[in-house]
Request: fold
Amino acid sequence: MDSARDLLIALARRYSFGDVGALAPAVLKDRETAAMVSSVCEFGRLLLTLDAEDFAADVDAQAVPADLRRRASDCHLPQTPREQPRGALESMRPAYALLLEVIGIRWARRELSSMIAAVHIASEYLPLLAIEPALGHAGDPARWPEALTGPGSRFGTIGDRMCQHTRAEQSAAERTLRVAAEPGTGWRAYLDRQHSQVAGALATCAARCRNPCTALSWVPDLDDLTLRCRVALAFAQSPLVRLRHAAPVGHGFGVPSAEEVLDAWGRSRTALDKNPVGHQATSDDGFPLPGLPSLMSAVAASPVVPGSLLADVSSHLVSLLG
Reply:
């Protein structure tokens, strides 16, 4: 039985939360401890799979320490327009710290499809990380500034041919202006399907629009935001992110090798190195994809480094098993 417990500890240190949770009831004699281990494993699994809707789901407060629950809540997407605290809609930086930690773990485990999926998520919301300093929040639809839709703004106007947004972005922009008044079901549907398109729409306003309106006239340093959004959009089109489209999960083909990932990131770093913000991708910051945290920090205009939330969940799990 001791050797089986040692195996569970080894799996916990490898962030194999699902395996530990499934095996613990058969290995641990004490039912209360087994139940606590299972609760911690489910908590860790949700974090590792980036299931942001459920980070704040009912968690056994006796099994999961308050500090871990609070840090997970910082990455959580609120499930109603008035839910408090606002989590990732208050600031995206904790969520990006978790994303970087997940990317590092997936790389170490050579779970490359899952790693590229996390990179893809990071690319979709990167414009919100860029605009957060100007907004004072991370694109919370309940807190858009009035000036976003002030006189002369085309943001959220459907069918305006002068607007550079795609039809999907126009629809998402129009929805984001009224979704805070919708019931929870509508709010959650918006977050699932349209919030990332709003991020792209804002980046287009800042960096790509050939017919600028007044939508972002309230931004104190628009030139700085334009540069950071331009890099965010370039990252979304980089060879690394495009690997996601060549690795359809569940199809059994096209999964990139570690060498292909590194090659794609190398080409991405070269493509991004066109300005002082993109140049940060060439930094050697010790990350498995060197320069990725430095790039995100430059886009955010604030330090963004890999977090330790999953590592601390793992350590807590090991203490329970030990």
Confidence is low (pLDDT under 50) at residues 247-252. The chain is about 55% helix and 0% strand.
